[in-house]
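This section describes the prediction task in plain terms. A model, or a person checking by hand, is given the sequence of a single protein chain and must write out its three-dimensional structure as a string of tokens. No templates, partner chains or ligands are provided. The sample shown here is typical of the held-out split.
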Amino acid sequence: MEMQMEFRRKLPIPQELKQQFPLSQEIRDIKEARDKEIEAIFTGKDQRFLLIIGPCSADREDAVLEYMTRLAKVQEKVKDKIFIIPRVYTNKPRTKGVGYKGMLHQPDPEKKEDMLAGIIAIREMHSRVVKETGFTCAEEMLYPENHRYLSDLLAYVAIGARSVEDQQHRMVASGIGIPAGMKNPTSGDISVMMNSITAAQSEQTFLYRGWEVHTTGNPMAHAILRGYVDNYGRSHPNYHYEDLIYVSEQYKKLGLQNPAVIVDCNHSNSGKQYMEQIRIAKDVLHSMHVSPDIAKIVKGLMIESYLVDGSQKIGDGVYGKSITDPCLGWEKSEKLIYDIADG
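The expected answer:
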């Protein structure tokens, strides 16, 4: 059988793209300052609560920037208690491999895939967010080999539930210099997540983009609890008191650095019922009040939020409404942030 792979064009390597689209000194300074603050939260020197919040997918620059501009005003009001890292997720995993895969693939969701235009679009959007709002953002590391296109802009990466068992994801996470949240796999197996944290916190030598590379380990690799799916496709939560205590005990048993949990309030924890995120966030805060161990280990929450409640099909054209998973709309999100600050 003849090879069915068509090599379309050679894309610029990250170093070339960074030279073509350089960052201003202002942006570099913002990133450096925020990286230090985030590190202080993960190492326990700063007691502020992390909130990783924003659209399920950053599908269009104008709506994303409007959302981030509103979010920056809220951050200013809660800055003593909450440190916000916005979600600007530009590549989306598709369980069946079909459908919208994010701005990286399709800068315009209604047009064909164009990955060169996509790489440029995501770099430009992340740069604009930093410049216009002062936020450095979170991304999902769906493709480890693409990380360096944005590595000088990002504050945080998440390794998804389908990627967390993959060797390359774990090894690249061990060398990125910012927090890497390792999600529990879709099966819910906590030992898999803990193994991935161990791998990411350890020194590694591996092949990356044609280079033999060595990493010193990432002491800020940590757990993200996102719920799980059973053999019959039913969603189950893992944010409850008992779940958080169990993960805390696993951290102690393994002797890992900087024990930390981020609770993902959507996905299988909510069964993708986006309104449930409000209740789940408050439930986690309650567990933190009850248990000093939980209060110590839970560093923050992950929430899917956009300008308009819910989700829509591509082509429906509602500005600021998710074209992937349903999100909490702006008014509810803003109220929730103030409630978390008060709680």
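For orientation: The first helix runs from residue 14 to 20.
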